[in-house]
Amino acid sequence: MKIRRRDFLKGVAASGLLLAAEQTPAQAKRARKDLPPNAVGILYDSTLCIGCKVCEHGCKETNNMPMEHANPKERMWDNPQDLSAKTLNIVKRYGVAGEKDSVEGFAFIKRHCMHCIDPACVSACPVSALVKNPENGVVTYNKKACIGCRYCQVACPYNIPKFQWDSPFPEITKCQLCSHLLAKGGISACCAVCPTGASLFGPVEKLRLEAKRRLAMEPGEYYDFPVANIESTEVQQHRVGGYVKHVYGERELGGSQVLYLAGVPFANLGLPDLPEDSYVALADGIQYAIYKGMVYPLVVLGGLIYIIRNREEKKE
Amino acid sequence: MQERQALGGKLLTVPFKVCAAIVLIGLFFIGKRFIFGIGSVSNMNDGYPWGIWIAYDVVVGTALACAGYSIALIVYVFNKGEYSPLVRPALMTSMFGYTLAGISVIFDIGRYWQAYNIFLPWLSNLHSVMFEVALCIGTYILVLWMEFAPVMLDKFKADQLKARLNRIIFVFIALGILLPTMHQSSLGTMMLMAGHKLSPLWWSGFLPLLFLITAVVIGYAAVIFESLVAAIAFKRPMEMHLLSKISALMPWLLGLYLVIRLEDVNLRGYLPLAFDGGLLGNLFLLENLLLLAALLILAYPANRQSPRLLFIASCAMLLGGSMYRFNTYIVGFDPGTGWQYFPSVSELFITFGIIAAEVMAYLWFVKTLPVLPRLKKA
Ligand code: SF4
Ligand code: SF4
Ligand code: SF4
Question: Which CATH architecture has domain B49-332?
Answer without folding.
Answer: Up-down Bundle (1.20)
